[in-house]
Design a protein that fits this description.
With 209 residues, the protein is of the alpha/beta class. The chain is built from eight helices and ten strands. The radius of gyration is 18 Å and the shape is elongated. Bound molecules: calcium ion (CA). Calcium ion binds next to loops.
């Protein structure tokens, strides 16, 4: 069972998250403060993902995130931010968080984000699909990196072309489609029904739904 750290000082929210994670088949490890979170991380080195509340009485969520990354850990990190804390999203991603969820959130939303991040990390970790090592071309690697850095964001074909091939590239937008198709064959279980690299009709592509 995958261990997930739940750092949240508000007991009601923490229990709510813990119950939902347990129901989704995860093993939640609870922490009510930043200090406790760091201790739990130390004794549970197999924690694969951390949900970090930003506002805590002792060490805040960003600092815990920074310390996790400073230790060299590549575990998934999702920040739990309060409503309308736009600045938190930016700060959170800058300190090394992978994603953020705004409170109040539904159990479905939280589980979806956790699942999505675990899937993403599964690929990110060792570029493997069903235990077989993937061989990516330089372009495919740059493509996947671009999507990993912009999870859930619809990217236009023009933006993808510029980001991956450079602004001097004079090729057609079709180049993007051709390479996405190749990448899907390598990473998707069913390339005709993509789960990861999804199409945004009339616009471009997106990582996840
Ligand atoms: Ca809090």
């Amino acid at each position: 069972m995958k261990k997930i750290l739940v750092m949240e000082d508000e007991t009601n929210i923490r229990s709510f998250v813990v119950i939902n994670l347990r129901r989704s088949g995860f093993e939640p490890i609870e922490a009510g403060s930043g200090e406790e979170a760091l201790e739990k991380l130390r004794v549970n080195p197999d924690i694969c993902l951390a949900l970090l509340d930003v506002m805590l009485p002792d060490i805040d969520g960003f600092e815990v995130c920074r310390r996790i990354r400073a230790s060299g850990s590549k575990m998934g990190i999702i920040m739990l931010t309060a409503k309308n804390q736009e600045i938190d999203k930016v700060t959170g991603l800058m300190t090394g968080a992978d994603d953020y969820v705004t409170k109040p959130f539904s159990p479905a939303e939280l589980t979806a984000r956790v699942d999505a991040l675990i899937r993403r990390l599964g690929i990110d970790e060792d570029d493997e699909k069903d235990g077989q090592r993937l061989k990516l071309t330089q372009i495919e690697y740059l493509l996947i990196k671009l999507f990993m850095e912009n999870p859930g964001k619809a990217m236009s074909r023009e933006d993808i072309l510029t980001a991956v091939w450079g602004s001097d590239f004079s090729g057609e937008l079709k180049t993007v489609d051709v390479n996405i198709r190749r990448l899907r064959i390598k990473i998707e279980n069913d390339p005709t029904e993509p789960e990861y690299l999804t199409t945004v009709w009339g616009y471009g592509y997106k990582w996840g739904y």
